[in-house]
Design goal:
Radius of gyration: 29 Å
Mean pLDDT: 86
Number of domains: 2
Largest sheet: 5 strands, antiparallel
Order of helices and strands: EHHEEEHHHEHHH
Distance between the termini: 63 Å
Amino acid sequence: MRSTFPRQAGRRGGARSWWGKAWHRAVEEAAFSESDLRAGRAVARRGEVGGISVDAGAVLAAVREGDDAWTVQVEVPVLEDDQRRALVDVVAAETGRIAALLDGELPHDLVEHAEELGVELLPYGGELAAACTCPHALDPCPHALAVLAQTGWLVDTDPLVLFALRGLDRETLLADLHARSDAADRQPARVLDLADDVEIAADAVLRARRLLELLEVGADLPDGLL
């Protein structure tokens, strides 16, 4: 589900959170030169990036430069279906994780647990593929780096933006957690039904064994045994 965030005012200072800092390290890795990185940060801090649209695997924004405006598109790999299911399981595995996410926090152990299952939530530089309509020779250009920097501000404030980029937006995550909870609530009933079936089967076996014993000795068969 695409979400569009309003234009962010320019600001100074880096990320406040450990995951926001991890995002900005990935942006540094993606830049081809320190000069491009500095220029991109300057554009971001001046507030020249327009509203940012975030969708599964994609970021889209316009960047103003004097009388010109350039369009930047960023691609981030989305999680496979089994990885998304594993990530939902990780969120549900510890009490308080979903509450922390909804409160704008990303528990470090959640990310570590996900990585143990092969789910990489935080991107590295090589995963941030950015293109811009400007004539700059190399990608990511300073405009793209500015968009990446401001996307990092969004991630820093709300880690669920990172989930959405990976293909698991807030609504889908909550729906999957709800479905998982419903399935868990139904599990005891299925276990009790199975226990009843086993008890009935065991009683039938005992009745059949007693019946054979009586038949072998030619005894009369009690009515209750049939």
